[in-house]
Design brief:
Layout lengths: L10 H20 L7 E2 L14 E4 L10 E2 L45 E10 L6 E2 L4 E5 L21 E5 L5 E7 L10 E7 L2 H5 L4 E8 L2 H8 L5 H7 L20 E5 L3 E9 L1
Parallel strand pairs: 4-12
Antiparallel strand pairs: 1-3, 2-11, 4-5, 4-8, 6-7, 6-9, 9-10, 11-12
Length: 275
C-alpha cells in the first residue's frame, strides 16, 4: 500500500459534517439548551506503559454516578458496505456470523494480523444504562492489517472479510472474532459499528438505531504495531493522537474500549454501547 492519501484516508472530508454536529450539540448542552441522555465516564489514562508482549488499557468509570448518555454518533465513513455508499453486504447470505476474519460466499480471502475479540454490550440509555437490549443487532466492520477495507479498497474489492452481523443475547452482548486493525493515514485506530433494532432490520439494512466508532488506547496499539505486518501503522501513529483525530478529538471517553491481552494470545476489546 503506497504512502499517498487513499480514498479511505479522506477522514476530514467525510467526517467533518458529523464532527461539527457533535461539537454544536455539546456546546448547546453546556448552556442548558440541549439535554444529553446516556452512560458517561471519565477519560481513561491511555498512557500506561506496555510490556514487550502484553498490554491492558480501559476507559475508567465515573466515580460520581454520572448520568447515562447515548453513544456519540459518528460517521460511517466512505466504506460502510451497508448500501448507503454502493455495495450492500448486509443482504448477503452468510453475513450473520461471529468470526469475521475470512470472507464468505464466493470470496475466500482471509485477513491476517494479531487476533482480536470484540464484545459490545448494547444497553438502553433511557433506563440509565441498566437494561440490556436483547434482540437488537450490531453490524461491525473495520480495515485490515494494511489499512484496506474489503469491498472497496484496491486489491480487496472482491473480498468481504472483517464485516459481520450479530444479534444481541440476553445480556445485550455481541462478540466478534477478528484481527487488530491498522492505523492508516489520517485516522486513529478504530472500528465502525451500527446498531439496529433487530436482526431483521440489520439484514434488510433499514432503521439504524445508532452509528458510532470504537477507539483503542495508544499503549495497546504501540505493542501490536511493533509486530510483523503492521510496519506502516507505526509511522501513521506517530503523526496522530486521540486528541487530534478528527473524530475523537471532541471526546472519546465513551468510545475507548477496555482492551486486555497480549500479542501471543490475542486481545479482547469490550465496550458498553448505550442507545
Amino acid at each position: 500500500m503506497s504512502e499517498e492519501l487513499h480514498d479511505h484516508d479522506r477522514g476530514l472530508s467525510f467526517d467533518l459534517p458529523t464532527l461539527q454536529r457533535r461539537k454544536m450539540i455539546r456546546l448547546l448542552a453546556g448552556v442548558g439548551l440541549v439535554p444529553l441522555v446516556g452512560c458517561s465516564s471519565d477519560d481513561s489514562d491511555s498512557s500506561a506503559s506496555a510490556s514487550s508482549g502484553s498490554a491492558s488499557s480501559s476507559a475508567s468509570a465515573s466515580s460520581g454516578g454520572a448520568e447515562c448518555e447515548t453513544i456519540p454518533g459518528e460517521t460511517a465513513g466512505p466504506y460502510p458496505g451497508d448500501g448507503s455508499n454502493g455495495v450492500n453486504v448486509l443482504k448477503e447470505s452468510g453475513v450473520v456470523r461471529k468470526d469475521i476474519t475470512s470472507s464468505f460466499g464466493t470470496a475466500s480471502g482471509k485477513a491476517e494480523g494479531v487476533p482480536l475479540t470484540v464484545t459490545l454490550t448494547v444497553v438502553d440509555a433511557a433506563s440509565g444504562c441498566g437494561t440490556p437490549k436483547e434482540g437488537a443487532a450490531v453490524y461491525l466492520w473495520h480495515c485490515d492489517r494494511d489499512g484496506n477495507y474489503s469491498l472497496y479498497s484496491e486489491g480487496v474489492t472482491e473480498e468481504n472479510y472483517l464485516r459481520g452481523v450479530q444479534e444481541t443475547d440476553a445480556k445485550g452482548q455481541v462478540t466478534f472474532t477478528s484481527i487488530f486493525p491498522a492505523c492508516y493515514t489520517g485516522r486513529w485506530p478504530h472500528i465502525h459499528f451500527e446498531v439496529y433494532g433487530s436482526l431483521e432490520d440489520a439484514t434488510n439494512a433499514t432503521s439504524i438505531t445508532a452509528t458510532s466508532q470504537l477507539a483503542f488506547a495508544k499503549d495497546v496499539c504501540d505493542t501490536v504495531y511493533a509486530t510483523d505486518g503492521y510496519d506502516r501503522s507505526v509511522q501513521n501513529m506517530g503523526q496522530l493522537s486521540l486528541e487530534t483525530d478528527n473524530i475523537f478529538s471532541d471526546g472519546y471517553d465513551q468510545q475507548l474500549a477496555t482492551t486486555k491481552g497480549s500479542v501471543e494470545k490475542g486481545y479482547t476489546a469490550t465496550l458498553t454501547v448505550p442507545v
